[in-house]
Amino acid sequence: MKRVLMVALATLLCFSLPLLASDPISHDVTVPTTLGQTTTVEWTGTIPPGAPGAATNSCTSGVLEDHHVINLIVPDGAYSGLQVTAAFHVEWDDGGQDMILTVLYNDATEIGSSDGGTPEENVVSTNPPAGAFTALACGFLASAPTSYRGRLTLTATEPSQNPPAGTGNASGPPPRFQHYAPDYARQGFGMFGGEATVDVNTKTGSIFYLGFLETMRLRVDDRTSPGLPTWELTPGTLNSKVTSDPILVADPATGRVFAQQLIGGEGQSLTEYTDDDGATWHPSEGGGQRSGADHQSLGVGPYPPGLRPPTSTYPNAVYYCSQDVALVYCSRSDDGGVTFGPGVPIYTVADCQGLHGHVKVAPDGTVYVPVAGCPSPLVSSTTSQPAVVVSQDAGLTWKVRKITTAPAGSGGHGSDPSVGIAKNGTVYLSYVDARTNHIHQVRSRDRGLTWERDVDLGALAHITAAQFPAVVAGDPDRAAVAFFGSTYNGVGVDTANNFEGTWQLFVAATYDGGLTYHVVDTKPGDPIQKGGICASGFCRNLLDFFDASIDAQGRVIVGYEDGCVGGCPLGMPGTFSDQAVVARQSGGRRMFAAFDPAEPARPGAPRIEGYRTAGFALIQWPEPDNGASSLRGYRVYRGTAAGGEKRIANLGATKRSFVDTGLDAGTTYVYRVSAVNGKGESPLGNTLALAVGSNAPTPEAACTLPGLLGAIDRVGEPEAAPLTRDIEAIYVSEPEDETLFGPNKLVFTLRLAASAPLQGGARFRTYFYVPATGRYVVLNVSPLTSGNTYGHYDQDPVSGDHNTLTIDGNLDAVVYKPDGSIQVVIDKAKLGVHAGDSLLSVYADSLPSETGLNITREEAGYFDYKVIGNDFCK
Fold first, then answer.
1. How far is Cα 349 from Cα 316, in angstroms, rounded to an integer?
2. How far, in Å, CA of 142 to CA of 660, rounded?
3. What span, in angstroms and rounded, lies between the C-alpha atoms of 738 and 743?
4. Do residues 672 and 684 make contact, with C-beta atoms less than 8 angstroms apart?
5. What pTM was estimated for this model as a whole?
6. Residues in contact with 700: Cβ distance below 8 Å, sequence separation at least 6, in sequence order
7. Which of 628, 698, 619, 700 lies closest to 659 in space, CA to CA?
8. Tens digit of pLDDT for each residue in 504-513?
9. pLDDT: is 261 or 394 the higher one?
10. Please, are residues 726 and 857 in contact by the beta-carbon 8 Å criterion?
């Protein structure tokens, strides 16, 4: 039997539903503020017969059920030194009856459940937020009215060092995020964003993202929700260099932004900086000598008191750290990153492993370099612990300080740890336990000498594996860590090619100094990777790290790579891409309490777009921020002039488009949309004026060769021999001229950087998913042993992934053109596709040839193509 207890955040007046009320109907309760204090309230109620518990195994508002309202009051600071447990309990006389009870928070979000106790149910929540709670109860196989007794007990205890399992144990609404990616098809950049670093120019609010070889700037207009993004590729000179390990950091005091690329194998970096928000960039020396050959990092912050040199020409110190396998060096710049002093060894491989995380500078000038394992697991895997290497004298001397709370053997995970430093110098560090793959967060208030509140965030949120933590901190008791996490419970190694789990971008935030956390999936249902996050092979698309920052108003900003472009629908394999994306906090408490929004609040104003034909107008919008209250619907307004719009439609919460018909062909109509939640109606969003023909789409007309340009690699990196097979673009066509290849053909044209490629110089593969057939298709081009073939990856009936390649036959033709392009021809009947079918996530890559030519894997973008039929243009 299913039995669930539900508590929903709502006000009593929200409900105009056929509910039964308990006796009494409500209680006003203040959480206890003294250690050991207990507060209890009780009520009684009756479950009517005919409630739908047997059919749904849950209670939902809007059906026959009993309810009790508790208006909970939480004094300021109530949870700073205490942990308050809220225990909800219901019991009834058995009599052959059973009850269903479910726990909701914030109108409709489930925060806990009870699934088995007769004749009682219990749900426990820790540090519940202030607001109006409503306890709903309905029957399970209820053939007669069932009376029950309800009770809520609030108990104040000592704070737990390891909060109880569950993701809703922190008080207040959790942080919420909206995601922004460049439009690669239109703008030609942002598809290759590997090893993202991100920071904010606090003087302008611009978000800078450096991934692979592109330095991008994002500005967000918050008058609508999501905000209107403006992405630009900055004119920095590093955009065209052959380098690795991109690093970007901003000085919050001056607004100077630094961009850097490691020169592979030379033990030095190329660095440039901008003082005008990315409009112009100036070269730098790069880093100090001696420097390491890999994994460099930049950090900027104040000097320790009294230690700013008299020759300094810039208000803050800039630190450059890098590792050279056996030694790690850090150097300091006193002129704003233009030149650097000599490199100072900060530890050896005998002390810690070579790879380290990003260097950070505290408000008091203390410098921190996090390390995953000390000693190196190569020295002792059983005693290794994560650590920070600390300098309190502006980088002259350094000390290794281990994370004293971390278990022996937890050090040495492949992901770098990360530190965030609060305004008062409190250090928050996140590491991944090498034994369990669980992510932890811990804090220090004495510059890393001792550590406390080591919380296993993996156990807290049922996350079985984690990668790439990135920590930020603001006020002394506020910090957040972004990371890739998987909840997969099956067999397999999360860093292996054949890993069958998926990964989400999580953010864990604390507002009470690390006692409790919200752990949120920032984009439920949309994974950032399907399959392993690997150290080698095709699944190394996400590389070694990503980054997070906070803006001047305390919003958490995450720069990451999407390895599942298009969301990787059910049954579709991962694309193993690395599209640049920024996740920007849209709601919930900030890292600076002074900027906390008052929530729950009305939703954000929807941002609409659309077009109009002679027959109709279509408007669409992404989901706005809900204001910490579940969205209940949308309202569509129309007029003939801005400011004169009248409501013409009410839509449900899941509807985010509207078709308007019966319009006058000669009239321009103006549209706006609002959103509604439990707190009311949002402001109206942007104004969209549509006349006949406005923004009207045209069908994809890939009628002549080379066809529709689907993706461009505009990075422009030079390809020195033998790296001469860079794919620059992909085209798709369905030629109307059937004399070329015959009727009913699809032609994929790969444009290469090198002209007249030698046949056999590389292998080329084109991939796409066909929903109409459920097949993930690959087209193989190679005149050598593998031949020119097509095939598909079979879907595993259990995991839903496509892992096993089946070769189905030969391509119709492969033509090497004199201009260096390759035409790949296949009959649509072989693929089972027809006009109207879609090819999803079309992309291509090149691999080393079977003869061993040293060609690195190159990829060209991801796009969808809708089949139109070869006779379309006729």
1. 30
2. 46
3. 5
4. yes
5. 0.73
6. 708, 865, 866, 868
7. 619
8. 999 999 999 9
9. 394
10. no
